[in-house]
């Protein structure tokens, strides 16, 4: 008899160590596949159940294959690996390289290597590519280069946008005309070139100014009209905010988020760096300011009217949650937690209990507990789900949520997910700070890029999900939104004091007033707090309007969106009960208190989840990425901010008297002494590193206490590990 065979596979992986070649180091993994071969028909005759044969009648075979993944290499080797990665079974290499190469090379450099060195068959026969000895291998090489170019154009076409000349795109077009004439790719490049040129022409002519990141002309700015705002339905406002967020998030170029690129935005020559990320920042801050201006913009409002506006914004935030728009949701929550709004105790007393509970649940999404674990888990859970998964501890809110969600489902339109981009920027900045760029021998650390790609891939996945939204712009609302005059922080605080002073504090009995104060305090500050924080006016230091006055975004707890646009306003979320109002506008306060806006300051023990790996006894200290003296780090323990971990940690250093508000994150190990850390800090702040002897390093213990380090002290062992790892570099007297 002839029995058709069935196969079942069991796969195991084994570490095969490293392979070292000239200019490259590879990780080797052995993939062992066990194939059980069995006859479908006749299995029962031999005593098997179903299609399974008894063990004694099973034929077992094993296949072993080798997977090579480049770990570190020269730029030439990394580019060459683009052509051989599939042969080495490293199937994700091309995507990882294209998403991260801008951190260590330019588009021009990579394209020249790919086309001139490996794509020019006449000059490649000198041994650079050993297998080019036959016509067949030339055909294979052309196909490999075509595959890489096709992936490049599909995944990262923005890399070729170089107005006005588009040199790289023209070079690519010339190569295609000579080597792949009349191909689909040639047509694609020509169309891309026309698209770039048309967009530039529209921009010059003034037709391309529809981006939500463009603020309105000063002539059209006006104080918010409460009646006009109230005329917009809650779900309409949420949908329009989501529409604007989606349009901006889909345009975010993922490599703009890389820590090595985003952390350089403070330099004068980089004022136009990462424009797609800056656009999302502007939109987030605009939403936050709009919330504040609608609540405080009209002094004549009665307490109940102002409370109704707060309630409306909470409802809008809830609608954003239903739409899975975590960006505007967080912007609204941040505004409501700002000092100027939070201190309106009498107004908050008039907000209904159900809505306060709804607000509390929405606020819990962005709790800083365990490095914002709640928001991270929720984002991953709903990243590709069709609809939001709404749970509420309050029955009435649960009914309303389910009713609204059912209406969305009845429409039959799936939803995407708009994330809070700050979470990803935090992780990428931390990765860039913790891992070195180069390893021993000056090789590019590609393991670092693989780790970064894990974050970039999440951004791309969410961008893809945003294509599911089907939202139509409402020009009436958009015009109203863009025409709002935003209050500065000083203006909003002044108005807040005036509004609260004018409020009739006798509308409630002392008993109910005390109860409401306790409830509001508990809502904002936690269950252990029963009295509101003391009031302090905003600092008189310059607001965050000047370019470069921003924190480095490199530490977990200060990784807020940079406020380096031409904006002079932003709200400030409240901080801890012990120190409620250490603040300024985004990037204008260096204290460990709350930061304005998009990255709220978390607790001192916050750590980036991407680094929460189990410790291993063998894990040694991690060197600073600029040292170039280590091999690729394989340690499972990565340094984090505010925690000494595996002989290393991350500290934040600001310059005393020079951009006090600018923090730079620095990786230190248990071997680093004052001169090493000082030199590294000067380099980070773009200052002359030779002036080490002119500075002293100081750790900020509290507002009135500092720890001054002796000249040759070991920073790691000498620092106070029970307070924030915030340092000041100060010129010696």
UniProtKB/TrEMBL annotation:
Chain residue ranges for the region called Disordered: 528-594, 612-633
Any single GO CC term annotated in Swiss-Prot or TrEMBL for this entry: plasma membrane
Phylogenetic placement of the source organism: Eukaryota, Metazoa, Chordata, Craniata, Vertebrata
Stretches with biased composition (Low complexity): 541-550, 583-594, 623-633
Annotated Polar residues bias: 551-561
Source organism (scientific name): Onychorhynchus coronatus (Royal flycatcher)
Encoding gene (name): Rgl1
Pfam families the UniProt entry points to: RA, RasGEF, RasGEF_N
Protein's UniProt name: RGL1 protein
InterPro entries, A to Z: RA_dom, Ras-like_GEF, Ras-like_Gua-exchang_fac_N, Ras_G-nucl-exch_fac_CS, Ras_GEF_dom_sf, RASGEF_cat_dom, RASGEF_cat_dom_sf, Ubiquitin-like_domsf
Keywords recorded for this protein, A-Z: Guanine-nucleotide releasing factor
Signal peptide span: none
GO biological process terms held by the UniProt record: Ras protein signal transduction
Segments traversing the membrane: none
């Amino acid at each position: 008899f002839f029995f058709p065979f069935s196969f079942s596979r069991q796969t195991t992986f084994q570490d095969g160590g490293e392979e070292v070649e000239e200019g490259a180091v590879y990780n080797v993994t052995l993939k062992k596949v066990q194939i059980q071969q069995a006859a479908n028909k006749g299995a029962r005759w031999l005593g098997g159940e179903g299609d399974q044969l008894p063990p004694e009648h099973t034929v077992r075979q094993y296949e072993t294959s080798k997977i090579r993944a480049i770990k570190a290499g020269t730029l030439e080797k990394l580019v060459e690996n683009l052509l051989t990665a599939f042969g080495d079974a490293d199937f994700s290499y091309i995507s990882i390289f294209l998403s991260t190469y801008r951190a260590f090379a330019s588009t021009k450099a990579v394209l020249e290597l790919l086309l001139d060195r490996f794509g020019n068959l006449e000059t490649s026969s000198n041994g650079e590519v050993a297998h080019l000895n036959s016509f067949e291998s030339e055909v294979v090489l052309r196909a490999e280069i075509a595959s890489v170019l096709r992936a490049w154009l599909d995944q990262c076409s923005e890399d070729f946008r170089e107005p006005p000349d588009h040199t790289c795109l023209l070079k690519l077009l010339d190569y295609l005309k000579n080597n792949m004439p009349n191909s689909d790719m040639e047509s694609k490049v020509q169309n891309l070139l026309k698209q770039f040129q048309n967009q530039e022409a529209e921009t010059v002519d003034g037709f391309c100014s529809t981006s939500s990141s463009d603020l309105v002309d000063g002539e059209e700015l006006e104080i918010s009209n409460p009646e006009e705002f109230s005329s917009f339905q809650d779900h309409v406002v949420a949908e329009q905010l989501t529409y604007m967020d989606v349009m901006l998030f889909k345009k975010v170029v993922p490599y703009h988020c890389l820590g090595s690129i985003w952390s350089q935005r403070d330099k004068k020559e980089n004022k136009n760096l990462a424009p797609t990320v800056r656009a999302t920042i502007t939109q987030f801050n605009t939403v936050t300011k709009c919330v504040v201006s609608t609540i405080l913009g009209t002094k004549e409002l009665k307490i109940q009217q102002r409370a109704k506006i707060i309630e409306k914004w909470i409802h809008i935030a809830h609608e954003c949650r239903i739409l899975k728009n975590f960006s505007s949701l967080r912007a609204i929550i941040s505004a409501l937690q700002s000092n100027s709004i939070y201190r309106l105790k009498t107004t908050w007393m008039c907000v209904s209990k159900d809505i306060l509970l709804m607000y509390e649940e929405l606020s819990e999404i962005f709790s800083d507990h365990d490095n914002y674990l709640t928001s991270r888990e929720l984002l991953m859970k709903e990243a590709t789900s069709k609809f939001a998964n709404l749970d509420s501890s309050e029955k009435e809110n649960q009914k309303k949520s389910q009713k609204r969600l059912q209406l969305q489902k009845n429409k039959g339109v799936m939803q995407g997910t708009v994330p809070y981009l700050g979470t990803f920027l935090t992780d990428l900045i931390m990765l860039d700070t913790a891992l070195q760029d180069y390893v021993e021998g000056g090789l590019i650390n590609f393991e670092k890029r693989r780790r970064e790609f894990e974050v970039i891939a999440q951004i791309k996945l969410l961008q893809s999900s945003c294509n599911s939204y089907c939202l139509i712009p409402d020009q009436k609302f958009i015009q109203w939104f863009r025409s709002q005059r935003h209050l500065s922080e000083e203006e909003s605080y002044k108005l807040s004091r005036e509004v609260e002073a004018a409020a009739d504090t006798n509308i409630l009995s002392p008993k109910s007033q005390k109860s409401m104060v306790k409830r509001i305090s508990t809502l904002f500050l936690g269950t252990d707090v029963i009295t509101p924080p003391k009031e302090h006016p905003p600092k008189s230091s310059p607001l965050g309007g000047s370019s470069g006055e921003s924190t480095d975004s490199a530490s977990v707890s200060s990784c807020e969106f940079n406020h380096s646009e031409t904006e002079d306003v932003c709200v400030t979320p409240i901080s801890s009960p012990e120190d409620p109002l250490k603040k300024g506008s985004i990037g204008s306060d260096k204290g460990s208190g709350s930061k304005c806006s998009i990255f709220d300051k978390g607790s001192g023990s916050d750590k980036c989840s991407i680094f929460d790996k189990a410790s291993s006894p063998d894990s040694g200290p991690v060197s600073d990425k600029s040292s170039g003296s280590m091999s690729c780090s394989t340690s499972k323990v990565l340094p984090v901010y505010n925690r000494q971990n595996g002989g290393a940690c991350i500290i934040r250093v600001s310059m005393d008297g020079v951009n006090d508000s600018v923090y730079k994150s620095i990786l230190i190990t248990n071997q680093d002494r004052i001169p090493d850390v000082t030199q590294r800090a000067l380099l980070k702040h773009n200052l002359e590193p030779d002036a080490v002897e002119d500075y002293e390093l100081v750790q900020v213990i509290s507002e009135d206490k500092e720890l001054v380090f002796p000249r040759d002290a070991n920073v790691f062992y000498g620092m106070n590990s029970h307070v924030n790892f915030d340092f000041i570099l100060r010129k010696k007297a």
